[in-house]
Design a protein that fits this description.
The chain is mainly alpha-helical. It is about 60% helix and about 5% strand. Helix 2 packs antiparallel against helix 3 and helix 2 crosses helix 6. The longest helix has 23 residues. The radius of gyration is 19 Å and the shape is elongated.
């Protein structure tokens, strides 16, 4: 397996080669800004994998098949795609946004994946909500975050800390 530094060098060589080819073809100097960010040590992850893993964690966390809200029980048979605002489901939906973005998916792509999400601003809000909750150590969200992260790490290898 290639060392991480070798991968970064190879990526930098590819970017420099692209810039040179672009300059030669169009007579224009191209300014490229990029960030090399290792995601995890394992395989590539699809957005479907992340979606399914978040749902698995939600269903394990609530094995009765519903979450309780004041005055009623909300079924979670559709997982994070359930059109509910029940806090427990919303937390896992926001964790889907967070981890899908972590694995490199754009906010626009994530917003098109769950039915009922009008645009990427909802995804941005969800990611910010998770970041703020983790910063303030909200116990409810930290617990759900750890459950999801543990499942993802068991499948894809160690995830880089946020």
């Amino acid at each position: 397996m290639k060392e991480q530094i070798d991968i970064w060098r190879e990526a930098e060589e590819m970017v420099n080669s692209f810039k040179e080819n672009f300059r030669n073809k169009f007579s224009v100097e191209l300014e490229i800004s990029y960030k090399l960010k290792p995601i995890c040590e394992a395989q590539l992850v699809s957005i479907i994998d992340v979606y399914n893993d978040i749902n698995i964690t939600l269903w394990k966390d609530f094995p009765a098949g519903y979450v309780k809200t004041p005055g009623k029980k909300v079924p979670i048979d559709k997982g994070i795609s359930s059109p509910t605002r029940a806090r427990d489901v919303v937390i896992y939906r926001h964790l889907f946004y967070y981890f899908a973005h972590y694995f490199g998916f754009s906010k626009v792509k994530i917003s098109t994946y769950i039915k009922g999400v009008p645009d990427h601003s909802v995804v941005i809000h969800g990611i910010k909500t998770i970041n703020n909750a983790l910063d303030t150590k909200n116990p409810e969200i930290v617990r759900a975050y750890k459950l999801v992260k543990d499942l993802l790490e068991s499948k894809y290898g160690k995830l880089k800390d946020r």
